[in-house]
């Protein structure tokens, strides 16, 4: 995909804007992933979430407490960031 983008890029970029073209070319060839939204899985949030989950707080309530969605908590569990205790 990157090779195709590098091949196509000269046809899409304004040739009078040398700085912009060079920046786009470097970005297309880069192995570094694009910068996305910052993660809410900070050490502090993970520590708070795990402590609350260990005390028996529901995942929904933990999510509200740290400002993320319930799906985020379950996603962290699936990724191994936090562990949700099984209900007995």
TrEMBL record:
<protein>
    <submittedName>
        <fullName>Uncharacterized protein</fullName>
    </submittedName>
</protein>
<dbReference type="InterPro" id="IPR009057">
    <property type="entry name" value="Homeodomain-like_sf"/>
</dbReference>
């Amino acid at each position: 995909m990157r090779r195709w983008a590098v091949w196509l890029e000269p046809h899409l970029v304004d040739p009078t804007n040398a700085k912009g073209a060079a920046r786009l070319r470097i970005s297309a060839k880069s192995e570094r992933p694009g910068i996305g939204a910052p993660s809410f899985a900070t050490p502090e949030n993970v520590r708070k979430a795990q402590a609350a989950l260990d005390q028996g707080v529901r995942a929904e309530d933990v999510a509200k407490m740290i400002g993320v969605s319930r799906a985020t908590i379950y996603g962290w569990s699936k990724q191994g960031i936090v562990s949700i205790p099984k209900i007995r």
